[in-house]
Amino acid sequence: MLNLRNKIHVKTGDLVAVISGKDKNKQGKIIAVSPKEKKLMVKGINLVSKHVKAKKADQESGIKKTESALYACKVQLVCPTCKKKTRVNHKLDDSGKKHRYCKKCNSML
């Protein structure tokens, strides 16, 4: 079997926009990434209701809204300079280090 590397085009802390689903056109920061599952969690996006039971006397029970995992193919990176949804371009600098660039405005991410 082929040894495919699990890569995702975004990193933790990036600002992304959802391009499909119930939260289409909403933006948020990535709080967790799981490259093996090709999923990520975005703050304030894909909220689900969880029924939480109090484990101790000082904890509250009830229904709480939390973020759920989202497939990475459903989000697109938002460039911090041009504020548009964009794809990621990779370029090598003089020292041979790889950097991410915006495909629209060609600024470093």
Commentary on this structure:
The chain has no helices and 10 strands. By secondary structure, it is mostly beta strands. It has a 6-stranded antiparallel β-sheet with strand order 6-3-2-1-7-8, with no helix packed on it. Strands 4-5 form a two-stranded antiparallel sheet. A two-stranded antiparallel sheet has the order 9-10. It is elongated, with a radius of gyration of 18 Å.
Descriptive keywords:
about 110 residues; six-stranded antiparallel beta sheet; two-stranded antiparallel ribbon; about 0% helix
Helix and strand succession?
A: EEEEEEEEEE
Q: Summarize the main sheet.
A: 6 strands, antiparallel
The total count of helices amounts to 0
Strand composition percent = 35-45%
Global mean pLDDT: 90
Gap from first CA to last CA? 35 Å
Instruction: Tell me the structural class.
Output: mainly beta
Strand order of the largest sheet: 6-3-2-1-7-8
Number of strands: 10
Outline type? elongated
Pick out the low-confidence regions.
none
Radius of gyration: 18 Å
Helix content: under 10%
Short description:
With 109 residues, the protein is mainly beta. The protein is 0% helix and 42% strand.
Task: Provide the fold topology.
Elements: E1 15-18, E2 27-34, E3 39-42, E4 47-52, E5 62-67, E6 70-71, E7 75-78, E8 85-86, E9 88-92, E10 98-102
Antiparallel strand pairs: 1-2, 1-7, 2-3, 3-6, 4-5, 7-8, 9-10
